[in-house]
Amino acid sequence: MRALSNVVVAENLTKRYGQLEAVRGISFAIKAGECFGFLGVNGAGKTTTMKMIYCRIARTSGTLDVLGLDAAKHAQAIKRRIGVVAQENALDPELTAFENLLLYASFFGIRGTAAREKVSELFELVSLTGKERARLTELSGGMKRRLVIARALVNDPEMLVLDEPTTGLDPQARLLVWEKLTRFRDSGLTLLLTTHYMEEAERLCNRIAIIDEGKILAEGSPQELIRRFAANDVLEIIGSASELPPPDRLDGLVARREQHGDVVYLYNADNRMLLHRLTELGYDPPRHVARRATLEDVFLNITGRELVE
Amino acid sequence: MSPVAAFFHRNAWIVFTRNYLAWQKYAFSSIAINIVEPLAYFLALGFGLGSYLQLGAYGSLVQFIAPGMLGFMAVNTATFDASWGCFERRVFNGVYESMVTAPVDPLEIAAGEYLWQAFRAVLYGCLFLGVITALGLVHSWWALLCPLVLAISGLLFSIPALFISMIVKTQEHLFYYFSFVVTPMSMISGVFFPLDKLPHWLATIAWWTPLYHAVNIFRSLVLGRISSAMAVDVVWLMAAIAVLAYLPSHIVRKRLGN
How would you write A252-265 as a 3-class SS string? Predict the structure, then answer.
């Protein structure tokens, strides 16, 4: 069992670009061995936060320690010990897939036969064996992403930082990346990722911070967040809330009701009971969807905005 | 890290190796492109225009231009790849972006690029040196020092070019640098004609360009006219490197550092 020490600790972290405050005083702690995710829309401050963690940009104020080192003072020492999958692949189109990784390995002092063996191993790990000599133009989006993940593992990192690991991939390619990441997580590697796919966050992350407009709005395990902010079930009814029976007649079955566009969301403990009660009251919901609550609902309830753009 | 110390870091040589790996995949076309154009200038001006001219004490035009072209090639090969090429590597291909997620200092990337430009200048310059040697235009064993001067010149001219590539917003803006700085400098630095008949003010400007001094050295080596005046040119080039090396530090750190 690994010690549950903190690998990243941020206190009141901010980043300002001129007038724009991209990250506005966030605090969080990431434990060794967990998969921690920042969930939020584009422009929420996820990438800026990640870039500060992997020492690509400097913070404006607050404190940020990565692997026990101050990110402002020990950038190179931190980079030596983490793996980075940035939002952009930044793969070198003038080199082959294999050369891309060999070159990267040499920056960590891994050279010669040791480097070749290491890179071959990684190709196998991310299911790219046979693509060693491929030019980038011959690789699909999913292959490129896996190649970048392999590149990030070249130095046996203590933590893998992934900024939107599957954005832009087709569902099949996404599943394959998830499968690899799940394997790394289960082997005890600390993962830190950002995403705007709630399914990704729900599948991979032990803990999630919902981030919006540069602030962390809620934090917890996916299940905790759903319980706390979205009841258990959701009944989506197309129509207006005014057509529904008044709340006091629903026997407190509805924990919260929201109207977004022409859909009424009834957050409740059990859809079956609620539907039954509605029928009893003579209200037969015309078009409705009964489903379990997801992180999407959590996000909607906390920010008042939808996650999908 | 100082820009000078960066040259001695292993990472600078890994950046150099990266460029070599990429280059050797299309080495033949790269060599052809870089040698054919200067050769065309040389043949047209030297033998074409030159057949109508005599430069008095300087001899024939073809003899005058031959060593001058070495300087011309150094400035052009280094300038083009350190500006156009580096812009591509930084902005379009994310080459530097991946490097700085590894423990690589931005100044080491710059140093690696300078070393690479020095290599290119030596390679293409020596091919040209071979051509003029075959034509009987090299008259001294001192010419064996030409590769060293090509390296120094390539390195020197790559510094302002990289600097420009870091400050422009689009690749097209690099043409301002080519058209307003590099081409005029190539014309007035004694590559194609002696400067004695230039107006004083223009000759003064020429003296302040590094290319003028590089060309002086090449001509002295190829003709075997070694004198103490050469020391001024050598000191001038070395001083220019020492001063220029600090010029891009700030912008390189800003673009690629944290």
Answer: CCEEEEEEECCEEE
Reported as type and span, the H/E element at residue A39 is strand A35-39
Give the closest-approach CA distance of A23 to chain B in angstroms.
Answer: 16
Which run of H or of E encompasses B184?
helix B183-188
In the block, which residue shows the tokens 């699909």? A140
Residues from chain B contacting residue A80 (CB–CB below 8 Å): 103
Q: Where are the beta strands (DSSP E) in chain B?
A: none
Neighbours of A138 (CB within 10 A): 11
State pTM to two decimals: 0.91
Contact criterion met (CB below 8 Å) for B18 and A95:
yes
Interchain CB distance below 8 Å, A94 and B22: yes
- Strands A254-260 and A233-238, bridge-based pairing: unpaired
Backbone dihedral angles phi then psi of residue A20, each to the nearest 5 degrees: -80, 125
Q: Write out the two tokens for B207.
A: 């003296």
- Nearest by CB to residue A79, choosing from B14, B94, B102, is B102
Contacts of A3 (CB under 8 A, 6+ apart): A32
CA distances from A285 to A184, A250, A267, A294 (A): 45, 14, 15, 22
Phi then psi for residue B108, to 5 deg, are -70, -35
Q: Please name the residues in contact with B224: beta carbons below 8 A apart, sequence gap of 6 or more.
A: B139, B140, B141, B142, B143
**Closest residue, chain A, to B19 (C-alpha):** A94
Q: Is A251 left (phi over 0), alpha (psi -120 to 50) or beta?
A: left
Show pLDDT as tens, one digit a residue, over chain B (258 residues): 788 889 999 999 999 999 999 999 999 999 998 999 999 999 999 999 998 988 888 889 999 999 999 999 999 999 999 999 999 999 999 999 999 999 999 999 999 999 999 999 999 999 999 999 999 999 999 999 999 999 999 999 999 999 999 999 999 999 999 999 999 999 999 999 999 889 999 999 999 999 999 999 999 999 999 999 899 999 999 999 999 999 999 999 999 988
Output DSSP code: residue B82: I
d(CA A218, CA A228): 10
Closest chain B residue to A111, measured at CA: B14
Question: Is the ipTM, as predicted for this complex, more than 0.85?
Answer: yes
Q: Do B103 and A95 touch (CB under 8 A)?
A: no
Q: Positive or negative, the Cα torsion across A108, A112, A115, A119? A: positive
CA distance B257 to B254: 6
CB-closest option in A91, A94, A107 to B102: A107
CB A22 within 8 A of CB A214: yes
Q: How many CB pairs under 8 A join A and B?
A: 63
Backbone angles phi, psi at A228, to 5 degrees: -75, -40
Helix (H, G, I), strand (E, B) or coil at A303: helix
In this complex, which of B17, B18, B101 lies closest to A86 when CB atoms are compared? B101
B63, B47 Cβ separation under 8 angstroms: no
